[in-house]
From TrEMBL:
The keyword Ribosomal protein does not apply. It comes from Wenzhouxiangella marina. SUPFAM superfamilies: FAD-binding/transporter-associated domain-like, FAD-linked oxidases, C-terminal domain. Signal peptide: none annotated. GO terms for biological process: respiratory electron transport chain. This is FAD linked oxidase domain protein. It comes from the Bacteria. Belongs to the FAD-binding oxidoreductase/transferase type 4 family.
């Protein structure tokens, strides 16, 4: 450890109690883990503040000692954003997880950043409300992490991403000052909306400590259906019909190919194929209403009957119980894990304009097949918002190592087409360390403006260096 590191640690020790500052290797180890095991950095220590004031003091101390910081939530991020690189101080929000207030008239709540997303959803449900962001990782992902990455999820088509839920924000800026705008106001045009800069900034502009979040009415009726189609063109025609006939009740429209279903059926002993025939594509559709009654199910049935007759779907199964709905969702949510059964998977979290999905898919997949014959596309995701988890499983005759060696070529094919159709190379998981070079390659102008904002707020570059943008020399 350098003298500077030792001095910083001693100063931090004066601010934090024993559990507030961890620096033994065995204590640090869990904070270096990330879901895909791709990033292996080193940290000086982990600070675990209990309040905004304490966190502000830590940040001031880091600023004085020129010690870089890595904000950390639940460590479920998939792009290495919460992993240290070279001896930074990890600042974990795990001890800041209080509910500060909830207002059922205003339909909003104020929570601290370390509260897990699932807990926020549970608190909202206890008040007959809904926090409409839902991720498979919600038991561990925190509010701070979901704000810092502007997390998406299955309900984006109806409610928007995390950004759309945030009314107010509290954060500690890189110099230790507290930015506090925890207001529940829906209308406030008094100047720049500064909280929006912090949302999606992946911990590079400050550390989010609390947020005032908008809540929606809880659904009182809902139906989930699994549908089979033979093409994504068909899927889009159905999406159009669902929107036209069921309006805002459409809260999810997910898609997956047969290969994904095969992986999940092999991976989950309880899982059952809802259909008696094999189909190329499947959709999971969910409609919900806050109005009481049971009119939504017949309304959806009507749409599906006409879609069957019009050739927009090939088959449909409605969930007849809550468990059946959960089983359909388990098929969709189980893909990421089950894909390991197909060996090495090259993953791309991209988005493209919804109407262009079929052409985009055809163009990229034929180029990929020419580059790596036998490559097995397992592309699934959120049809309704254009977010494709563009995952590629290794060809059956190729070793994992040889397939991994083709990763750069595959990435180039996928990302070139993404740029060509005006899509995004980082749709919901963010940029982190994983995609920072690609962002620099494809969006140099944007990166230059981002760098100007970064140096205005964090001139010393101490807040999560090496994430989102290349490290400054
Ligand atoms: C099984 C699984 C399913 C997932 N599904 C989805 C999905 O559907 N949609 C989606 O968008 N993502 C998904 N993710 C990715 C991940 O869950 C999200 O990115 C989530 O928002 C990360 O939250 P976290 O608390 O774990 O943050 P972390 O992983 O700890 O951190 C993520 C980033 O946010 C920064 N950060 C964390 N806390 C703060 C804070 N308080 N202030 C400032 N910066 C902070 C970190 O520095 C890092 O850059 C999934 C991940 C897994 C493992």
């Amino acid at each position: 450890m350098s003298d500077r590191g030792r001095d910083a640690l001693a100063a931090l020790g004066r601010l934090l109690d024993g559990p507030g500052l961890l620096h033994e290797p065995e204590d640090l180890a869990p904070y270096l883990n990330e879901p895909r095991g791709r990033f292996h950095g080193r940290a000086l220590a982990v600070a675990r503040p209990e309040s905004t004031e304490q966190l502000a003091a830590i940040v001031r101390c880091c600023s004085e000692h020129e010690l870089a910081m890595v904000p950390q939530g639940g460590r479920t991020g998939l792009v290495g954003g919460a992993s240290p690189i070279n001896g930074e101080l990890i600042i974990s929000l795990e001890r800041m997880r209080r509910l500060r207030s909830i207002d059922p008239i205003d339909t909003s709540l104020v929570v601290e950043a370390g509260m897990p997303l699932a807990r926020v959803r549970q608190i909202a449900a206890e008040h007959g409300l809904r926090y409409p962001v839902s991720l498979a990782s919600e038991g561990t992902a925190t509010i701070g992490g979901t704000l810092a990455t502007n997390a998406g999820g299955n309900l984006t088509i109806r409610y928007g991403n995390t950004r759309a839920q945030v009314l107010g924000l509290e954060a500690v800026l890189p110099d230790g000052r507290v930015f506090s705008e925890l207001s529940p106001l829906r209308k406030d045009n008094s100047g720049y909306d500064l909280k929006q800069l912090l949302i999606g900034s992946e911990g590079t502009l400050g550390i989010i400590t609390a947020a005032c979040l908008r809540l929606a009415p809880a659904p009182r009726q809902g139906v989930t259906a699994m549908l089979a189609t033979h093409s994504l063109d068909q899927g889009l025609a159905l999406l159009r019909q669902l929107r036209a006939e069921l309006g805002e009740t459409l809260s999810a429209c997910e898609f997956m190919p047969r290969l994904a279903l095969d992986f999940v059926l092999a991976d989950q002993p309880r899982a059952r194929d809802p259909f008696d025939r094999v189909h190329p594509w499947y959709l999971v559709v969910q409609v919900e209403s806050a109005l009481a009654g049971d009119w939504l199910k017949p309304a959806l049935l009507n749409v599906l009957e006409s879609a069957l007759q019009g050739g927009r779907i090939d088959d449909a199964v409605l969930a007849e119980s809550e468990q059946a709905a959960l089983d359909f969702w388990a098929l969709r949510e189980g893909i990421s894990r089950a894909q390991a059964r197909g060996g090495v998977s090259l993953k791309h979290d991209i988005s493209v304009p919804v109407p262009r999905i079929p052409d985009f898919m055809q163009a990229v997949l034929s180029e990929l097949e020419r580059a790596v014959p036998g490559i097995r596309p397992c592309v699934f995701g959120h049809l309704g918002d254009g977010n494709l988890h563009f995952n590629l499983s290794q060809p059956e005759g190729l070793s994992g190592e040889d397939f991994r060696a083709r990763e750069a070529d595959c990435n180039r094919i996928v990302f070139d087409q993404v740029h060509a159709v005006g899509g995004s190379i980082a749709a919901e998981h963010g940029v982190g360390q994983l995609r920072r070079e690609e962002l620099a390659r494809g969006q140099a102008r944007k990166l230059e403006l981002m760098a100007r904002v970064k140096s205005a707020l964090d001139p010393a570059g101490l807040m999560n260096p090496g994430k989102l943008m290349p490290v400054r020399p």
